[in-house]
């Protein structure tokens, strides 16, 4: 499947929020359905829970290769994934939350992302 950069960011942020809420444990089936619903609505491209899981597995494999190669990787998703996957469950290094009914995530060294039920936009 084709994944745009925008849809991939939505996936990472939606999965990341649920992953942290679950104490860095694997998501349950119903959580993957929620992830797929959010990704589909925000990116306006239908994605199933299986497509989301497969994309995340691919991203995790790429992250592990990049991490072995260089801790200063320039891969666009590296810093975000590193903050999620390479920190203790008690660290809260990924500020995010709800603002006026929109999910807002601020990731270091990348534009702020605002998600609404029907749109994806970057705010600089």
Describe the structure in your own words.
- The protein is of the alpha+beta class.
- It has one domain (5-123).
- Helix content is 49%, strand content 15%.
- It is built from four helices and four strands; from the N terminus they run ααααββββ.
- It has a four-stranded antiparallel beta sheet.
- Strand 1 (96-99) and strand 2 form a beta hairpin.
- The longest helix is centred in the middle third of the chain and has 21 residues, at 49-69.
- The radius of gyration is 14 Å and the shape is globular.
- The model is unreliable at 90-101 and 106-124 (pLDDT under 50).
Ordered list of secondary-structure elements with their pairings:
Blueprint: H1 5-21, H2 29-43, H3 49-69, H4 78-85, E1 96-99, E2 102-105, E3 112-116, E4 119-123
Antiparallel strand pairs: 1-2, 2-3, 3-4
Helix pairs in contact: 1-2, 2-3
